[in-house]
Design a protein that fits this description.
With about 350 residues, the chain is of the alpha/beta class. It is built from 12 helices and 10 strands. Keywords: Oxidoreductase.
Length: about 350
């Protein structure tokens, strides 16, 4: 980081001893939009700039595909193997995929995530990452019926038997006890889910979740509607993903919309992603307002969106996903961008009119 980086650039994750950087390098583009050589260059530059918290998943790269499933972890593993001594400087996080959700290459299209599934997936991730321990091991999405990935309402009609949270925690506890995992986390979780994981851990002497990785961006602040209180009171750290709203908050789509394939970005490149929450017309409409607010106050849209996450008391670490070193530098440089009370008030005003369109 630059010499004027604030002293609080490291943060303790939950109640653990893990000290992670407040910016986390997300790697979901590695192996799809980003080739292996470029991925190495990006990771090298991140470490050079002081970002030593990396997040990946067995599911990556995105968009998901059977052909590339687990490729991102393998790329990171080869990068680590070529850099002896670097591993101990990093906080390395990965995730076990939840139920298949139509992806038939995940555990033969299983609609569940059993304790044995968690153990087997962790062993495979350790091999791909070429490491003896995963610092933060997360459940990518819940096995139970929950509204997520753009679904807004809980539907009791979709209930079906799945592995209980207690059994999943027992499996995670085995991995921690064996020294293969240092801390555990959740992703795409609800307030109830966090409470239940914490309650059962404390009741049965099992590992306590340290983190929750959920979307948090100007166009999706659903965390602020109850999960923020849960995280604060239970001392669980928020890892904010998609802070740029899949590119909506960079301004790249402001002029021509999501069909502007002259601007490289996931929403323009992949038709399946246009159909997701980030591709909603009202999400783009809200993003255009935030992007104009940034320009009106002398910021770039990227600076405004990232500074909002970086300086939020709710966020422990912000996950940035990039496709080039130039993007990486721009995102890291935004750490030093302050936001005035006036700008924050304008952000809240826009949110009042356009409430979380990418939820």
């Amino acid at each position: 980081m630059s010499s004027n980086t604030p002293n609080d650039f490291h943060v303790r994750l939950g109640r653990t001893d893990l000290q992670a950087t407040r910016i986390c390098l997300g790697t979901m583009t590695f192996g799809e939009q980003v080739d292996e050589a470029t991925a190495y260059t990006i990771m090298d530059r991140a470490v050079e700039r002081g970002v030593t918290f990396f997040d990946t998943a067995e599911m990556y790269p995105v968009p998901p595909s059977a052909a590339r499933y687990t490729l991102t972890e393998s790329i990171i593993g080869r990068w680590l193997a070529a850099r002896p001594g670097l591993r101990e400087r990093l906080v390395l996080a990965t995730k076990v995929a939840g139920p298949a959700r139509g992806y038939d290459w995940i555990r033969n299209a299983s609609g569940d995530l059993t304790g044995q599934d968690i153990i087997d997936a962790c062993e495979a991730s350790l091999r791909r990452l070429q490491t003896d321990v995963i610092d933060l091991y997360q459940i990518h999405w819940p096995a139970r019926n929950v509204p997520s990935f753009g679904s807004v309402y809980f539907d009791p009609q979709r209930e079906q038997p799945v592995t209980p949270i207690h059994q999943q925690l027992e499996a995670l506890g085995q991995l921690v006890k064996a020294g293969k995992v240092r801390a555990i986390g959740l992703s795409n979780e609800t307030p109830w889910g966090v409470h239940e994981f914490v309650r059962l851990a404390e009741q049965h002497g099992l590992p306590r979740v340290a983190t929750v990785q959920n979307p948090y961006a100007l166009v999706n602040r659903s965390v602020d509607n109850a999960l923020d209180e849960t995280l604060f009171r239970e001392q669980v750290s928020l890892l904010a993903y998609s802070p740029l709203g899949f590119g909506l908050l960079t301004g790249k789509y402001d002029a021509k919309g999501l069909d502007d394939d002259s601007r490289p970005g996931r929403l323009a490149m992949f038709e399946t992603m246009k159909k997701q929450r980030w591709g909603r017309p009202d999400a783009l409409a809200a993003a255009r307002l935030y992007n104009q607010l940034a320009r009106d106050h002398g910021y770039t849209p990227t600076q405004l969106a990232l500074a909002f996450c970086y300086r939020s008391h709710r966020v422990a670490s912000t996950i940035i996903g990039v496709t080039s070193v130039a993007q990486l530098d721009e995102d890291i440089d935004a750490w030093n961008v302050p936001l005035s009370a006036e700008v924050l008030a304008e952000i809240d005003r826009i949110r009042w009119l356009h409430r979380d369109p990418a939820q």
